[in-house]
Amino acid sequence: MLEGIVRDSMTKQGTKSLRRDGYLIANIYGKGLENINAAFKKNEFIKYLKNKTTLAFDVKVGDNTLKVVVQEYQKDPISSDLLHVDLMVAQPGVRTTYKVPVKVEGTPVGLKNKGLFIFHKKRVPVKSTIENLPESFTLQIADLDVGHSVLIRDLDLPEGVDCYLDPRVPLVGVIKAK
Known about the structure:
By secondary structure, the chain is mainly β.
């Protein structure tokens, strides 16, 4: 379980001193819950996220243990350091928007025909409860040739999971190399 601290000071100076000490600033929020301003050790947070197997994971901040999902993060544009992360509490029975990762299996045929494989969307926004949420969408791409794509409408959405993106939006595809 990932452990963090509750931030006392919301000032710019307090935030800078926490970052200097190696902390990552975080906001934890949820429907009907009071926001929690927290901080996690940056290296521990990154290591934990790389090794997690599910979309939702547990964090302990102060006396609270919460099941959360990463909603958004901010990086420094120059150094690519992680600056801030928004964590949403995954409440059972509450329908909300989650971003589910897209994974691919196979090697496209189009790569042998001088094509380039392109990832258009690495995460798909879906509206669901945490119980029905898939861990990821796995796409078989072995049959993709140059000019072919896998679209949103080609996804197999489980019961109770809705995607509000245009069905013609591509997820992955193979384009002709110049």
